[in-house]
């Protein structure tokens, strides 16, 4: 479409589109979201928005991909640093984000997208990609920890499954129940009864 | 309303109403659900349905309450039995239900109701009640286990939070991702890296 120069989205434009999508989504929720409402949050030329995306679902899949990239950037996990430190950073980023209130708003709308996933293949595929990518971050950290002797001989894949599932559950409890301390309580329990138990001393 | 004898719902009628609501919900999803579609699944007099419930949301809150009661009945946890056995029974019931496919269908629609909870106070309150009741089942089991020496001296509340959050997360992954083994993988990891670690031997 359009014989313009924007055959690929440049980064500032992509950032602006994703920010507008995020703002409109948290403001109106999935059911109330329309392309027009996203355009309303977009300062640049509306044609730029429509040039790259046809539907709100396309924009939301792009947003899920974008959020995964942002997580990677924000983590900037130094692979040389202590595995326990990296694990803590990842847990805290997933539970609290860079800003607690914004993170809660995002998790609330993310749950709406998750709830659509059984009926929406594009959402399901992107969520599966994101889930696998985050799972792999945990696997790498735990495997490094085992190799370096920070953790005892555990199965990194199983530990990753347990930790990530617990975080997911706590986030769902946080945004759906009157339980504002859900992520804090889960974090405490997770370190006391799971992460601390990974220390090699427990093998003695 | 109605000068009839049904001032309270008798149990067979309540069962039939809840089954019709459940069937209609799993068939049409929350967004597609209407009172008429619930009535379509109800074999008895439609007036009976409308006599007791005005809106689909009222029926859904009643359904959440009813499912909690069913969980209690199905568990029929013998308080004299081994805490580890009771814990296993509860974990398996929450992960797999009495029938795996029906449980997946229910968890799928339950997620839709959860996603409404931030905007729907009645859903949020009932989900908070259900969550607290199940949390308390875990707390009681772990506390009994500590008292009887089946488990080491752990904080039952924290362990309950961790176990239940992990189950919740696995159920969400199960119904939203292309991950049909999610509950089985979580169950294995949970017993290996959390429940088995509760044994008092680990204190030695």
Automatic annotation (TrEMBL), chains A, B:
Residues annotated as DNA-binding are 34-53
User: Which Pfam families has this protein been placed in?
Assistant: TetR_C_6, TetR_N
* UniProt keyword annotation of Thylakoid present: no
What InterPro entries does the database record attribute to this sequence? BetI_C, Homeodomain-like_sf, HTH-type_TetR-like_transc_reg, HTH_TetR, Tet_transcr_reg_TetR-rel_C_sf
User: In this protein, which residues make up the domain named HTH tetR-type?
Assistant: 11-71
List the protein's name: HTH tetR-type domain-containing protein
Keywords of this entry = DNA-binding, Repressor, Transcription, Transcription regulation
| GO MF terms held by the record | DNA-binding transcription factor activity; transcription cis-regulatory region binding
